[in-house]
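STRUCTURE REQUEST FORM
Protein name: G/U mismatch-specific uracil-DNA glycosylase
Source organism: Aequorivita viscosa
Requested output: structure tokens
Priority: standard
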Amino acid sequence: MTEITRNRTIRPSTRLEKSKSYKIDTKTVSRGDILVVNIDHETKPFRKTFKFNGSDVAHKDSINFRINDYGTSIDISWSGATPLGTATSKATIPSSAPKILAKKVVDKVASKPTTAHLKTSFDPISNADTTILILGTMPGDKSLELGEYYGHSRNRFWKIISTITNNGLPLTYADKKALLLKTKIGIWDVAHKANRKGSLDSAIEDEEPNDLKNFIARHKNLKIIGFNGTKSQALHDKYFDKKNGIKYIPLPSTSPANTGINFDNICNVWRQILTE
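Status: completed
Returned output:
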């Protein structure tokens, strides 16, 4: 039995007030799996975990949850499947700290606003055939706004992948994801969430890593992990050991901030991921 993990963040800042429904992709869940869904909030100290039997979701493309935020509590209701134990969850948001701790809490917040720029990464794009995984740090502001990996118009990632795999440049996000699956390339980020003002990797603080160990265990055909930029590799090495049987390749960043290498040269380096 394999646990398949999905992480979702409640993001009021990027959704219309009436849009409170969130989708969980279940295409890769098999009948014998357990689907684990971790839900947190972009600004509140809220985290809730739900588990589903694979037999309940394996035949579906997705399931959905809807939230009702009452300020001091959040209700979560599911459609498409019933979590193990309960169908609806109500979680209370912790109130302010006790008076005896008030000064320490205020001092800490004043010196370092730890949630002022809290951001959360996306689920990975991959399937059982994935042999190459490209790891970034975490999505930039434009990507978070669009809900797409490498969403900035000047990020060279999609142009590089299409060039080195001899495919046309995909124009829609659906086509971009299809290109990755066709070429057996997966993408994810090392950080599940972090504080970052703006989109520069150098501004990442207080990061929490994604469950890369579980990802590797579930993707039996994985042979190569490429790091999209030096910060990605540094974060990986901070939290994870390298696995035998996997080749790790540092790659120049595709970020618009990396102006020190021209397109032909960056493609030549990135072609290393296709050598196995």
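Reviewer notes: The mean pLDDT is 83. Helices lie at 54-57, 102-111, 141-146, 157-164, 173-182, 212-218, 230-239, 263-270.
Form closed.
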